[in-house]
Amino acid sequence: MRETPNLDWLRVFAETAATESFALAALRLGVTPGAVSQRIKALESFLRVSLFERYPQGVKLTDAGQRYAQSLAPALDQIINATREITSAGSNKSVRITILPALAQLWLGPKMEAFHALGTNTNVEIWADPNVVDLRTSNFDIAIRHGRPPFPGCEMTELFFDEIVPVASQNVIETAERDERGLPRDVPLVVDIYWQHDLNDWLGRTGQNAPPTITTKTYSLYSMAVEATLQGAGFMIGHTALIGDKIADGRLVPLSELRVPSPNQFYLLTKSAVPLSVPAKTFVTWLLDQAKQDAAPST
């Protein structure tokens, strides 16, 4: 008799133990729930012990299953890490990240030259997409999301704190008459498609009514809206996490002292129970360090 079970059975058991769901484990592994059930049965037959209690609404680890999962997890992590280290040694190391276009263009992109200057020989693949990719079933290592917890199947770290406040260029500040909210009269609101409801969010969170009339200029990207505002084409609701540097150097000026937390915040996500490769760990550490350096409030 073999002393160790099939590694595939153990991998499936680890995922199922983490979720206590055949369906979620199947989703993570990219197989069917039936295939998960088959492998669990094979492992239980090999071990001659029941690892899960089956119920109509799902499964639950038995006491033996809990002990086995706790003992198995460190060993599987070591296997994964050892495999990643040896396959990445001496080769070009890649890290894949999915990120909101605004953050990619205004925050991450300008910093990448500094990362490459570290000489890590890491190829960072940046996929800027407003559509949310399910990190659990993708081949991305990292995601940066503008949202609210929970993020199922993911470990999360808050990247930085985001506030919203109306802003305009110095030229608009100097030439436009302003209403009781501080907003410039007869000046268009510059918006992007993704954050087109920012003005209503800011007004609602500050307890103010909307202006009686307002015209808008709409852009497909937030970076385009920022550039238009810098050129004096209108005012916009600024996300301090993205335009803090422009507020700090005076290129954009807050129209109100009322800054309120954005309804969503920026989080760095990685897959639960899936150890990062060494290059991905290096990149995550660098990302968090960059965010920490930028965390000082803008003035």
Description:
With 299 residues, this protein is an alpha/beta fold. It has three domains: 7-88, Arc Repressor Mutant, subunit A (Orthogonal Bundle); 93-159 and 264-293, D-Maltodextrin-Binding Protein, domain 2; 163-261, Periplasmic binding protein-like II (D-Maltodextrin-Binding Protein, domain 2), CATH 3.40.190.10. It is built from ten helices and 13 strands. The radius of gyration is 25 Å and the shape is elongated. The mean pLDDT is 89.
Topology of this protein?
Blueprint: H1 7-19, H2 22-29, H3 33-47, E1 52-55, E2 58-61, H4 63-88, E3 93-99, H5 101-116, E4 122-128, E5 142-147, E6 154-160, E7 163-168, H6 170-175, E8 189-192, H7 198-206, E9 216-219, H8 222-230, E10 236-239, H9 240-248, E11 253-254, E12 260-261, E13 265-271, H10 278-293
Parallel strand pairs: 3-4, 3-5, 8-9
Antiparallel strand pairs: 1-2, 5-13, 6-13, 7-10, 7-11, 7-12
Helix pairs in contact: 1-2, 1-3, 1-4, 2-3
Q: Quick gist of this model?
A:
Belongs to the LysR transcriptional regulatory family. The protein is an alpha/beta fold and 299 residues long.
